[in-house]
Amino acid sequence: MNDESNLEPHSPPAVDTTCKRCGTVNEPDTNRCRNCNAFLPMHRSNESHAIHTLQRRGVGALPPEFQVMKCERQEQMLIDLGGRDQLSALEVGLVERAAYLATMLDLYEADFQARGFYTPRGRQRNSVEAYLKILDRYEKLAKRLGLQRRTKDVNPIDDYLKRRQKERDEAQSEKCDV
User: Fold this and answer.
1) For residue 107, which of 129, 77, 125, 127 has the smallest C-alpha distance?
2) How far is it, in rounded angstroms, from Cα 95 to Cα 105?
3) 3-state secondary structure 9-38
4) Which of 4, 5, 29, 6 is nearest to 16 (CA)?
């Protein structure tokens, strides 16, 4: 049974066109306030800035190779910390954030390789400051998680062999009792 309402195309969410500076309500699909010329919330000009797009769209905005890289880095971090089952939920969350920040750092580094640290006029790009802030946060997360590898807790081989022998002896005694 088909529901007719599911067949209708979804309309885009309503965008608030009220200027935060002066309070003027503007027409939809405008980037600037007609009264004070300030940028409106969610204006299309932000799309030229990768960090705003990444914040608004989330990990889905990343190129596929960076999404794969983030997942691989997260799994490697979990392995280095002794495995997911050895970590608390908070530590797993910190690992997810650290992998996300590391991926953002890689995006900035790729941008620096392509465009350099300076604009054509010789000024330092704004992305350099953002990169350094993210690097600082990444280092703080890494220190909180620990920079050393943690070994996974495993039973010593002697304990395993004793347990196996005990199970065999019990199984043998059960056969003899029958």
Assistant:
1) 127
2) 15
3) CCCCCCCCCECCCCCCECCCCCCECCCCCC
4) 29
Q: What is the DSSP letter of 123?
A: P
Per-residue pLDDT reduced to its tens digit, 41-74: 766 554 555 555 666 666 566 678 888 888 999 9
Q: What is the 8-class DSSP label of residue 62?
A: S
Closest alpha carbon to 41 in 55, 31, 27, 28: 31
Q: What is the pTM of this model?
A: 0.54
With beta carbons less than 8 A apart as the criterion, state whether 43 and 29 touch: no
Tokens 């309309």 sit on residue: 11
* Calpha distance 131→109 (Å, rounded): 8
SS3 assignment, position 92:
helix
- Find the farthest-apart pair of alpha carbons in the chain and give their distance in angstroms, rounded: 95
CA gap 26, 52 in Å, rounded: 22
